[in-house]
Amino acid sequence: MTKRIFTLLALILWASTSLAQTSREEVMADINRAGGVYYGYTAPTAEYTPSPKGYEPFYISHYGRHGSRYMGKDSQYDYPVSVLNKAHAAGKLTPLGEDVRERVLKVYAVAERRGGDLTQKGIRQHEEIATRMAQNFPELFKQKGLKVDVISSVYPRCLMSMAAFCDALKSQNPTLQITRDASNAKMEQIHNLKSEWNPTLSKEILEIVWGENNIWRKRVYDYEREHIDFSRLLGTLFNDREYIRTQFNNRDLWRSLAEFALNIQCIDIEDVCLYDIFTKDELYEYWRTGNFAHYAKFGHYIYFHTISTETSKILKAIIAQIDKDLAAGTPSVSLRFGHDTCIFAISPFMGFPGSCAVSTDYDVINNEWRNYRIAPMAANIQMIFYRKKGCDDVLVRILHNEQEVRIDIESPTAPYYRWEDVKHLWTENIRKATQY
To answer: Apex CA 275: angle with CA 158 and CA 282, to 5°?
Structure first.
């Protein structure tokens, strides 16, 4: 009992320290965080806890999100450009509007027809994460001919991330035996929330994640109407109120410009910024709507037990692969490259602090569950396994975005836990969610 109390106190201490700042304070301190899943990866700064005496790493299981990318679709660039160009031709832009148009066009010159593509920043993020992985665990990565099995989502941004990561590992040890795979056949282990890769996916789940008429989207619309004045910004860009009222959807253009502004952090373009046309409060409110949307789809919201029937399959596949590789007993590495949706989806099952908030209250959700912490660009989960000669227990240390994770398991060696205990916790969390 004493050990369990100690573990719980450690979790509480971690939470109180990491959440000392409110979400508002964090976003105001770094407005890039208002981009949510566009937020750039932050290299770890904390020192790691040494492994228990005699234990050395011999296996790693990893799931990584692709690195920084352009906005998801070409239309997200085309739309604001077309509206601003049309207004320019009609003489309907203010001097600030003309200036903003020039800035938007400068970004467009770089981003045109690159919707969804990985950026050079995204490549560097994965090169750096891979290099740190190899350097953090030299006992494993200096082995000659180490086997590295890799699977990736079929999206080009994930394939490019996989290539950058593997190339960086290879630069640390040219003898690595890397096997790479990416196909529709593997997608159910990587991203199973689209019908083309998961034919049995129910219409209900498709509507929850991608639909336009679900409950969470209505809450977002209602919140926006109450907290965001779209006319303030648009009134500074256009010189004709009637034109603003009749020529485009105010909400669509405002949100388009906000996303445009927040995605610039993902691109190597240093001399363009659009944050000045918004207030920090406006960008914070924009973040809250996006953060709530991610929580509603993948957190402990009203849909959690419905969608968990599918999202749990990703973690089940990871567990199965871990057990298979551990049974082989040979030092190896298993890498997966996918998407933010899957990082969000499996984090609650894994018991990550900050991802397990249970609420339907808008304010509680947006303070306790923060998407820029859980799944920024290049987000990753690393499970490092340790063994000791003459001891049957395999220990695992979990890193989320290269930060040590403490979970609700009694362990005198935390953040190193017995794999059997961790697997039991995750399996139980899945069972409780899917048999609700």
So the answer is: 100
Q: Which residue has the tokens 């929580």?
A: 295
Work out whether strand 56-65 and strand 332-338 pair parallel, antiparallel, or are unpaired.
Answer: parallel
Beta bridge partners of 57: 386
State pTM to two decimals.
Answer: 0.94
Contact 351, 16 (CB under 8 A): no
Q: How far is CA 396 from CA 29, 55, 295, in A?
A: 34, 10, 28
pLDDT given for residue 295 in this prediction? 96
- pLDDT for res 255: 98
347-369 CB burial, b ≥16 within 10 A, e <16:
bbbbbbbbbbbebeebeebbbbb
CATH number, domain containing residue 93: 3.40.50.1240
Q: Scanning the structure block, which residue is given the tokens 């900050």?
A: 354
Structural domains of the chain, count: 1
Low-confidence winner among 148-152, 192-196, 424-428 (lowest mean pLDDT)? 192-196
Q: What local confidence, expressed as pLDDT, does residue 436 receive?
A: 62
Q: Which residue has the tokens 């596949």?
A: 317
Give the mean pLDDT of 120-147: 98
- The boundaries of the domain holding residue 303 are 2-434
Distance CA 351, CA 346 (A): 9
